[in-house]
Amino acid sequence: MLISYSFRNFRSFRETAVLDMKAGKQRTYDENLIREAGMRILPSAVIYGANASGKSNIIMSLALMQEIVTWGSVEASSPIMMNMELYPFAYNTEPEPILFQAEFINNGRHYLYSFEIIVKPFQKDKRKIVSEQLWVSCGNKLVQVFERDSQRVDIKRDKKVLSLIQYNENLLAEFENKININLDPTKLFLAHGFKTLISSDIADDVIDFFTSKLLVVNDFALRKLNISMAFSEMPKKSVAVWNTLLDNFIKAADFGPQKLMLKPQKIEENRFEDMQLYSAYTPNGFEKPIMIPAELMESRGTLKLLDFAIPFITVFEEGTVFVLDEFDAIIHPELVKGIIALFNDQSFNKNGAQLIFSTHNPIYMSNRIFRRDQIKFVERDKDTYESTIHSLADFGSTEVRNDENYMINYFKGKYSMLPYIDFTKFFNTPDNVKDPSTGRVPRKPGR
């Protein structure tokens, strides 16, 4: 469960930006909030912003943090990490570190984990981790377990930390010296030295959040379905898998009488890999259904909804944080509203799953769907080119009432700058300049 995510010096964000999922003082829809570790946490949030405002950069930066933690290194060959030199804010006068920081709860324990990396903007060079910190809950407080700079790691030795990691102070000092002799500036201490020598339980729990409880999709409209399934999860009598959740989605969305099935294309290490989605049609006069690859029969919107539906049940079972860029790009807004309602319904969302998505569609900007602190805005300054994040709750209850029409006021420019481009100037060429005396574009001979 995500409490907050902070980052700095990433693409259009020069200063520290915070995506805060802690609920404010507002009591509207209080029953929708997730309650964990004495905190009130938002189950969902929507991010608005003009084109090139930076809203996609929030999601991209979180995807990059997830990838670095998963690999445990800044030198991995992951696609999103290949061009890391393009990610720092382009108009810095001096190289500055990129900050990633996540505060979250996993398996009932509260964590705060952060690290900073230095890369040379626009030039391939050595990447270097210059800071790394881990805080873990002990009782009702977070205690710092370790702190790292570009040269060495300092593992804290107070009684609470020694109790958490179950170490003798003298032995810990001995191990710390060995760790610092071999400290690799390209590898996360959490995923290597700390996991191997200090506390694999804590390290695994932190890493598990990023690998298993955080699902970031920054290319939802382009992403192609890719499903694998263990033998034990397959029906015994059929190679086709009928997912009842898919069935419910199809019926609820009224896509038609067809059924959708998954068929494995290959088998690797006791798993069915490359599960392909098929549409099953039973035309008049046919006793058995005809199986056709779904991408040949179904619309892009249908395929995207099914792409979402397949992992959907796991999201709620495991309390996953689901983060998507342009979630509703090819899905009908009414279907998206229904999905939002599931995350906001704590009688259904019992394990604290969260949905965070960006959009241009103002239909979700409603006090019937979201609290003020669930509606986020991203703006980019036209002079400094820097992006910032704020929420509707930041305006205060005197400026924004719970019962006002958020969408109308948004279009009035009350909450955020709206993009306006006069496209007529693009066509103001010698061939179409109006005659000032007539107000019309003169016709050329021969036309």
Summarize the structure.
Helix content is 24%, strand content 27%.
Describe the structure in your own words.
The structure is a single chain. The protein is an alpha+beta fold and 447 residues long. The chain contains 11 helices and 19 strands. Strands 2-1-6-7-8-9-10 form a 7-stranded antiparallel sheet. Strand 8 and strand 9 form a beta hairpin. Helix 4 runs antiparallel to helix 5 (200-212). The longest helix has 17 residues, at 55-71.
Report low-confidence residues grouped into runs of 5 or more.
Answer: 225-242
The count of helical stretches stands at 11
Rg (CA only): 26 Å
Strand order of the largest sheet: 2-1-6-7-8-9-10
Strand content: 25-35%
> Could you estimate the helical fraction of the residues in percent?
10-25%
Classification by helices and strands: alpha+beta
| Overall pLDDT score | 83
Give the number of DSSP strands: 19
Shape: globular
Main sheet? Answer: 7 strands, antiparallel
What is the succession of H and E elements? EEEEEHEEEEEHHHHEEHEEEHHHEHEEEH
